[in-house]
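Protocol step 4 of 6.
Sequence for Dihydrolipoamide acetyltransferase component of pyruvate dehydrogenase complex (Desulforhopalus singaporensis) entered exactly as in the expression construct, tag removed. Do not edit the line below.
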Amino acid sequence: MGVEHVLIPDFGGVQQITVVEIFVSPGTTVKEDDSLLTLESEKAVMDLPSPFSGVVEEVLVEEDEVVKSGRAVVAIRVAGNGTAEGENEKEKSADKVTTADPVPEKTMADESGESGRGQGTGGAAGLPATGEAGGESVAKRGVHATPSVRALARRKGVELDQVHGTGPGGRIVKEDVLQAVAGEGGAAENKRQRPPRFIDEFAGFGEVEEVALSRIQKIGGSRLEKSWTEIPHVTHFEEADVTDLEKFRQQQNESLSGENVRLSLLAFVIKAVAASLKQFPLFNSSLLPESDKIVLKRYWNIGIAVDTPDGLVVPVIKRVDTRGIYEIAEELIRVSGGAREQKLAINDMQGATFTISSLGGIGGTGFTPIISMPQVAILGISRTYMKPVWDGQRFVPRRMLPFSVSYDHRVIDGAEAARFCISIKMNVEDLKRTLL
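Step 5 output, structure tokens:
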């Protein structure tokens, strides 16, 4: 049996990746494709799977540590004959290095918070509850503690799920384990440190159920809070008349009968937004607070919030300003399908300069989407509806598209936001302007 080192793979040029959660510790038995740890890059969160079966020899990183591509993170003693058939004994006993391909899981809706059928709660992929005597199963990981703390708990015979963590975010630290070892006195002291349990108060009025947040909710929640508290959000509401656009779209789709591509209203909105972003470059920028400067981006990549059974994913359509409406529609179908089937590449979820969140498939007349840092604005689309509009002689029925733009008030003022929304409205309503 040889020892393999699993490396952080290439993330398409991203230099800093954060280790969000570690699922294994020395002695853990893993199978091929079991998740070793969760990585976070920009808005993407992904599990790093084990490339082979074996027993974890050493964990070389800690939670919240920032790492780079190529860094060794886990050493695994490979079961059986190693990773390559026909290796000689010398090769089997030597240390080897393997790069694991991460499995894109979902992106935080710090990016937007809403999409499609509504925001999903996300969830961890099913993991086998395998394990040998003396080893910790991958599935047994419902506590937050670093590998060193887990190892200490094993040596002291402490069950971590019985220990109350006093570290940041409820994480179990070394002192918590030592306090638990101290016996009843330590347990009593530990209990006294517990914050008030609001669920006990709620239970006084009726039946309640305590449900743990999913991993993506915990990760995404902190980033949503960061975005909401650090960015002074203002939301501007507007609506566009899409009556003529909808007639044109339906005619085009009828002519495309039998083809794989279908023109959605969102495809036209993406094209319209690209034109408005060119006209109002502040909305396609990022703020550098440390230098009091703004970075104006000369490329236009639109993130599209997609609701999936596993949570919210925000794939990116690149260079929308250079794409025709049919090409945008095809790319929208590709990335949306890839998001739902978990087949997106890392590059598909990076580089967005502006995000669109659509609740058109559900309903509502308006909402306030949360800006995706480091972007400075986000567009929210609601469901179209019929409205009587005065044409100068009589009221006529028109189909209206409500939309809203949340923007960073440190970068963008209200007048500029109003002009930007009017630009989107005009581009959506004017077919020639949109298509050209």
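Step 6, annotate. Residues 215-230 form the longest helix (16 residues).
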